[in-house]
Design goal:
Blueprint: H1 2-16, E1 19-25, E2 28-33, E3 37-42, E4 56-62, E5 65-71, H2 72-75, E6 88-94, E7 99-105, E8 107-113, E9 119-120, E10 134-140, E11 143-148, H3 156-163
Length: 164
């Protein structure tokens, strides 16, 4: 019985390989590996929490579970904007399900496949570093999607605060 569940888990991981949730912030498309995404919900009342980084909007109560919410525009030092009917919260699991976080995005586009052979490493800045949370750049036809590393969207001290 245990072997069957291991097989089923491996089979599920294979089906999710190279699958990404695409969403928009401003004029750019970003992607997250679909295996991190648990659900997408409409924008709802966010309870502000004091002494959080500026991009942490607060927390939401999602079916009895309190989840921190990050405004991805603010996280990426973009200009904030008013939320509208297309604004969504993408709920993701981080650290193998130990932490759930909601990401506020302008709009969700689609789930799409981007083969590993079409993913290039991110460009480095003048200091030789690249943004910590960019895993790569996915080529989709004539477009480029910025692929994020979900586990690097937060710094260690933020993980500690959210998992407490």
């Amino acid at each position: 019985m245990n072997q069957q569940s291991d097989f089923e888990m491996a089979n599920t991981e294979d089906t999710l390989k190279d699958m990404y949730l695409s969403f928009r912030l401003g004029d750019e498309d970003y992607c997250l590996e679909i295996r991190h995404v648990t659900e997408i919900v409409g924008i709802q009342k966010v309870t502000e929490v004091p002494d959080m980084p500026h991009y942490v909007k607060g927390v939401v109560n999602l079916r009895g579970q309190v989840i921190p919410v990050i405004d991805m525009r603010l996280r990426f030092n973009m200009m904030g904007r008013d939320y509208d009917e297309r604004t969504c919260i993408v709920v993701i699991n981080l650290r193998n399900g130990l932490v759930q976080v909601g990401l506020v995005v302008d709009t969700v586009n689609e789930v799409r496949s981007i083969e590993e052979s079409n993913v290039s490493p991110p460009p480095k800045s003048g200091t030789g570093q690249c943004a910590q949370y960019i895993r790569g750049l996915g080529k989709v036809g004539d477009d480029v999607k910025i692929i994020l590393d979900a586990n690097k969207l937060l710094f260690e001290e933020e993980f500690a605060a959210f998992s407490a």
